[in-house]
Amino acid sequence: MGEELLTIDHLHTAFKHGTEYYDAVDDVSLKIHKDEILAIVGESGCGKTTLAKSIIGLHDLKRTKISGHIGFENEELVGASPAKFDKLRGSEMGMIFQDPLAALNPLMRVEDQVREVLDYHTNYSAEKKHKIVLELLDQVGLENPERVARQFPHELSGGMRQRIIIAIAIACKPELIIADEPTTALDVTIQAQILDLLRTIQTQNHAGIILITHDLGVVADTADEVVVMYAGQVVERGSVSQIFNHPLHPYTRSLLKSIPQADHPGDRLYAIEGSVPPLTKMPHDGCRFAPRIPWVPESAHEKKPTMHEPEEGHYVLCTCYQSFKFENGEAV
Amino acid sequence: MWKTILRRVVIMIPQIVILSLLVFILAKFMPGDPFTGSITPQTDASQLHALKVQAGLYDPWYTQYVHWVVNMFHGDFGTSYQFKEPVMAVIGGRAVNTLWLSLFTVILTYLIAIPLGLLAGRYEDTNLDRGIMFFNYVTYAIPLFVFLVLGLWLFGYVLGWFPSGGSISLSANGFFGNALSRLYHMILPGVLTALLSTTSTVQYLRSEIVDQKHQDMVATARAKGVPERKVFSRHILRNSLLPIAAFMGYSITGLLGGSVFVEQIFVYPGMGQLFLNSISNRDFSVITALVMIYGILALFGTLLSDIIMSIVDPRIRIK
């Protein structure tokens, strides 16, 4: 494990709704190191993207309140000025977005979009930038970079567009890359290629990657560390082997149980009852997952859930994991 | 891009043919003929018949149609019943007047509308935005003719800052004198019309900007470290101007047709006034020519819009 790259402590990100602020990210703490892929998993609406945008400073601060602490390379990012973020983004931090078509400007040629990063972070000459753009396109596995450089996004396939987004994100060899569901919009074969590419880049650039996904298969294949989020909170975190071989929190166990198993064809797929409560109806006290496992007695939960560390480096929220069994009595 | 334009022009040919057929049929349905205006109690019926035969009015319709089209290509739209002059000569001078007034109005409209839409979109939900939106609803709600009459009364009569009618003063002479006098006559009708023509552009631009701001593409630009000011000008604004560009062609040629209201109220000798005048005097040859010209202008408007779009939006170009 490399040196510490990003430390998040007790982060709250609250959105304004009407006159009130509601926490979309509620007391999240985590760390990421160089040479590490940290996966953040959870279902839609659990705060994964909100967390990522808080790190990279993409929230509209007129409607968002961020408190807590985000430390990145000895700098405090909570409350950092827009100018500081402009300097960090693109050069020290890169972000890969979910929908590769929406994430590219339809009116600009690929070369101009990739070069824009270099324009704001380097003083290279035009020829050097051109050369770097072609190298980047080649590095992300695009054939015939010169041709692609002259094309517009609508002339490229989804996988090619995602490669260009990645080229943009890694143009200045950032220390930290945040990939927000980078493979969700792609078909399965392309997904595998893009994940391979991310891993290769991580090894070449020694970057730390935060991989946001709801696809546990992707996590198992790619990540080193896993953070499981539910309703704005981190409910469990640990290494990939800890999370997959010895999941603790009922939510993690339910998520793993809901993966289709190839060796049990014909079984009904497990589904977690209910859904994540909307931001405005989020309970303040108690275990937030309790309403979705109603058969578990209230006494199993903590009144104010805290983080426990039952084994080294493996954290879990609330005490309900200790006695949790599925409704049919199965333990895992 | 040239391919796109060429293709568009080729498509226009059948459109113009259909348009000309429609106008021709309508013209044939109208009562009277080129000699109706020159009939007097002394006119000999057999002489009139001979004239009509000579003019080809008893030929089959397709011969007449071809004849009409061929003449039109030579700039011959017949003779105005009312002015006893070739139609082209009647339209010519007024077309120039309308062209200047329209150009002035279009430019002014965009000069007012684009900054307003841009500010409202950029500073969404601030008092500035609310103020601009209020202005927009007010200008949308006021009928043009009421606004023009009020403006004319206030600035033309009460304050007397601007002439109350005409396109040029009789005393103007010399190139600059003429140009200045023309401009002076255009200011009041131009400014008043432009103020009320901004609504859709402001509204479109504002909502496009608000919409574009929340696109992933803009988040990508910010994630690249592009400063906010540049994100706005390079990414948000360019993409937001597309629908405005799409309408530009129509609005330019649309205004070339002249505004009946403006020209009537300001006694401005242009195409709109001529059209109204020709209708009330049943000057059919002028009406036919004007309808044909308006139709062709509308077609050119769509052509112009498509050309503008193919320049600004690479997705529309044909390979």
Identify the overall geometry of chain A. globular
CATH class of the domain at 90-276 in chain B: Mainly Alpha
Q: What structural category arises from helix and sheet content of chain B?
A: mainly alpha
Radius of gyration of chain A: 21 Å
Number of helical segments with 4 or more residues of chain A: 10
Most residues in contact: chain pair: A-B, 32 and 21 residues
Described by the principal axes of the CA atoms, the overall outline of chain B is: globular
Keywords:
heterodimer; A: alpha/beta; Rossmann fold; eight-stranded mixed beta sheet; four-stranded antiparallel beta sheet; 10 helices; 12 strands; B: 319 residues; mainly alpha; 14 helices
Describe this structure in words.
The complex is a heterodimer of chains A (332) and B (319). Chain A is an alpha/beta fold and 332 residues long. Helices cover 30% and strands 24% of the residues of chain A. In chain A, a hairpin with a 2-residue loop joins strand 11 and strand 12. The longest helix of chain A has 18 residues. Chain A starts with a strand and ends in a 15-residue tail after the last strand. The relative contact order of chain A is 0.14. Chain B is mainly alpha-helical and 319 residues long. Chain B has a domain of 187 residues: MetI-like (MetI-like fold, Orthogonal Bundle). Chain B is built from 14 helices and no strands. At the A-B interface, helix 2, strand 6, helix 3 and helix 6 of A face helix 9 and helix 10 of B.
